[in-house]
Amino acid sequence: MNPDLERLHPYPFEKLKTLFTGLPASDKSPIALSIGEPKHPSPDFVQQVLRDNSALLARYPTTAGIPELSQAIADWLKQRFHLNSVDPAGQVLPVNGTREALFAFTQAVIDRQRQPLVLMPNPFYQIYEGATLLAGGEPVYLPCTDATGLQPDFDAVSEDTWIRTQLLFICTPGNPTGATLSLSQLKALIQLADKYDFVIASDECYSEIYRDKPPAGLLQACAALGRDDYRRCVVFHSLSKRSNLPGLRSGFVAGDREILAGFLRYRTYHGCAMPIHHQLASIAAWQDEAHVAHNRALYREKFDAVLDILGGPLKVSAPSAGFYLWPKTPISDEAFAKRLQAEQNVTVLPGRYLSRTVNGKNPGSNRVRMALVAPLEECIEGATRIKALLDTL
């Protein structure tokens, strides 16, 4: 077996299962605020496309996908991020969701013979770390704290670290923080990538769930710098959160033409082509914004209701984007999650399960992640139960 498999950390939900082992059964109905799986209805018109084209299951799809999907994605990117041009044939690659793509991309771009460093936010989506370890890289965790605006302080990274960096993961909006990087911050990162010759992988799968202002994107920063080649820059987008289609497993990678050419070659051997009827359904989803606006309104309503209940007793505020709350806890995050499960049958994820301890500090300690994905009434009930626990602490 690959010895690097032994370097993988248990997944957060494995740790959560262990934490809850032995807890007595509750007489209250379960409310899960731990997993970021969208629960809003999938668009009817997307489901109809799937039904109408089920006969295409008889055909093998190609890894590059059908040209119509790449064109729809290119059109969406240009409209959403104010880009001058996107070549659908060379700067867009459909993928089976961002999770698979983030992992595979890391394997394709890392040169393990050069003692590579891979920088990532801390807390983080655990795929960044696992992909790095299995590619032979060394993760470097950049703390995201209140003092840094819940995004990494890139000015604190040493030059020696930048010199060895091959890949920088950014997540904007962040999971679990909801914090976004500004256009000026993204421009500065592109200049660092030019100076030290590393690739930026921007995970933007929460970009369409925002409260007020659409978050900036990495390709948008490239365009603002006059760089339509998107050199050293790639972005990852998905229909899972934007369109409530996590089971469709549909997203895309876009950016640097040379990098995507190599990634396409890797994926051809990987065997991960998207089914054709999924591609047609994806075209329909990328070409419609009305359902996305409705989706945002549903999340906004839930945030407002939940924060009205928890805003006083808990240190929590609305994020700029995404569907998570990242509150501070009055006791340790593990103890809080365990008591909440035992006493109220509400599941949240301890923040330390999404972070790593560096220099004796874990930025996820004394925080929990709450995913407001359940229906409004269930989120309100969950918030009410959380408040009931807080009243006893």
UniProtKB/TrEMBL annotation:
GO molecular function: pyridoxal phosphate binding; succinyldiaminopimelate transaminase activity
Obligatory cofactor(s): pyridoxal 5'-phosphate
All residue ranges annotated as the Aminotransferase class I/classII large domain in the record: 31-371
Family matches, as InterPro entries: Aminotransferase_I/II_large, DapC_beta/gammaproteobac, LL-DAP_aminotransferase, PyrdxlP-dep_Trfase, PyrdxlP-dep_Trfase_major, PyrdxlP-dep_Trfase_small
Keyword Repeat listed: no
A Pfam family assignment: Aminotran_1_2
Keywords: Aminotransferase, Transferase
GO-annotated biological processes: lysine biosynthetic process via diaminopimelate
Stored NCBIfam families: DapC_gpp (TIGR03538)
Entries under PANTHER family matching the protein: AMINO ACID AMINOTRANSFERASE (PTHR42832), L-GLUTAMINE--4-(METHYLSULFANYL)-2-OXOBUTANOATE AMINOTRANSFERASE (PTHR42832:SF3)
Protein's UniProt name: Succinyldiaminopimelate transaminase
Organism: Alcanivorax hongdengensis A-11-3
